[in-house]
């Protein structure tokens, strides 16, 4: 029975782990009692809205957006009949919910690989104080004791293309490609300044060093590999620049060191916007999000099943899509790089 207190419209804010998933998937996760038919009917009537605007089931939600939940959407109620927010522990998704979340991020899947468009702010693997991460969701896809395997990593604050292998053989194949530097990755970044020259190669070894006054280590440019630093090489191209200010850069990491792109961009005095750790105050830009503006746009690799070259690209989303629209930067370009050989 309906509570004596009339249920009201609710505004629910999209959390970072849900960034980029379809609206219908979002409802399946947070309001599993709402069927697809009733959802479509509410959308057609304009009862469900995103940021005050009409929405479609295929729309992708963005962190920080407010979704209007009409009174007729059924809530799951705990014993006692009163709806209540879930605790941190209870907020961990069920197997069905996790599978739905992953489906919302999926941009390609076959019998060998799974490619996700990773949300910004979500860790790839767990650690101290990290309860929600990509690797944890993958348990929902386990079949006969096997589940997709991570073959590379993205930082928590970096969004974009994340490639996973669905079999041991596929994982071994892609891992070998990565080790032998035959996988071409392209990242997009917004830098606080345009680099000079506008394109080229950054060949600066990196070594860990402390942040002054903090018990934390970051990657620092070192004189040469003999000092204990590791070889680190990044190719870059300036795609567009807003006057003499911030620039849209394409980055190709030839090597795969921790925080390599962030450290290298800072080293050429073009720090990535939102990267206070490496860029300091220069990396703050008025008018755009203070989050890190670094996105894994595409990968080119030999497919472990077909043996042919495969190209995959992730659509830009979240705060970076907002920034690209703000500067009217292109969002559908393919970057050409010179051969690595």
Features:
19% helix; Pseudouridine synthase; 16 strands; four-stranded antiparallel β-sheet; 8 helices; disordered N terminus; 341 residues; globular; 3 domains
CATH fold assignment of the largest domain: Pseudouridine synthase
Note the run of SSEs as H and E: EHHEEEHEEHEEHEEEEEEHHEEH
CATH class of the largest domain: Alpha Beta
Helix content: 10-25%
Strand content: 15-25%
Proper CATH architecture of the largest domain: 2-Layer Sandwich
Structure description:
It is a single chain. With about 350 residues, this protein is of the alpha+beta class. The chain has three domains: about 60 residues, RNA-binding S4 domain (Structural Genomics Hypothetical 15.5 Kd Protein In mrcA-pckA Intergenic Region, Chain A); about 80 residues, Pseudouridine synthase (2-Layer Sandwich); about 140 residues, Pseudouridine synthase, CATH 3.30.2350.10. About 20% of the residues lie in helices and about 25% in strands. It is built from eight helices and 16 strands. The strands form three sheets. Strands 5, 6, 7, 8, 9, 10, 13, 14, 15 and 16 form a ten-stranded mixed β-sheet that branches. Strands 1-4-2-3 form a four-stranded antiparallel β-sheet, with no helix packed on it. Strands 11-12 form a two-stranded antiparallel sheet. Helix 1 packs antiparallel against helix 3. The N terminus is likely disordered.
